[in-house]
Amino acid sequence: MLQALFFDLDGTLTDSQLGIVNSIKYSLNKLQLPELDDATLKLFIGPPLLASYQKYCGLSAADAQQALLAYREYYTDKGILENKVYAGIPSALAQLQQNYRLYITTSKPELYAQQISDHFALSQYFTAIYGASMDETRAGKSEIIAYAQTETGLVHGQNLVMVGDRENDINGAHDHGLQSIAVTYGFGSQDELSAAVPSAFATAPTELPSIVKQLERPL
To answer: Alpha helices of 120-189 — where are they, by DSSP H?
Structure first.
């Protein structure tokens, strides 16, 4: 029996592109690193930032840490609220909340996720929020899902659905035996999401309640 839904934050509940991209640009400028094209900047949204700085900027672990610190200078001051809730999300969450427990599971630091949820009045829909540690020792989506399962006691993957917009959301769900819904209105491409093989696709937030109902299955 389906008991709960795990939601990604960036690209699933909110369009956070402006704040994240501006924060990355600030960090690159401060560290005098080469500029990145728009397509590459967009790839930073979702996965852990330390890994993205190493992957897309060719930085060492130590230099990526410095880039992350610079990123947070801008993000905590301005970027965190350069953000908006996707149309249709509040009504979809209100419907889903009637039948399931809802949780946020994000690779964004838990502190930031809570601030965003509070500011945009999303916290009312969620039982709890689980995110990365500030030092990103807990940051990958598979790790966040495991953390959320431990904290909630929802250890049986077949009772859960992960909703997200990037391959790491879907792959994390596979790691723990969860069904998954890939949302195509976020930051992941159709090719990326299809390759990850989610249980279902949603092209708009308004589709989520009916898709979740279709995924219900007995233990």
So the answer is: 141-152, 167-175
At residue 73, the pLDDT reads 98
CATH number attached to the domain at 17-81: 1.10.150.240
DSSP string over 183-215:
ETTSSS-HHHHHHH--SEEESSGGGHHHHHHHH
49-62 average pLDDT score: 97
Ramachandran region, residue 201 (left: φ > 0; alpha: ψ -120 to 50; beta: rest): beta
**70 has a pLDDT exceeding 70:** yes
Report d(CA 90, CA 92) in Å as an integer: 5
Catalytic residues, by residue number, are: 8
Q: What is the mean pLDDT of residues 33-55?
A: 96
Closest alpha carbon to 84 in 38, 121, 126: 121
For the chain, residues classed under CATH 1.10.150.240 are 17-81
Across the range 42-46, mean pLDDT stands at 94
Which pLDDT score, from 0 to 100, does residue 218 have? 41
Name the superfamily (CATH) of residues 4-15+83-215. Answer: HAD superfamily/HAD-like (3.40.50.1000)
Q: Which residues contact 170 (CB under 8 A, 6 or more apart)?
A: 162, 164, 180, 182, 193, 196, 197, 198
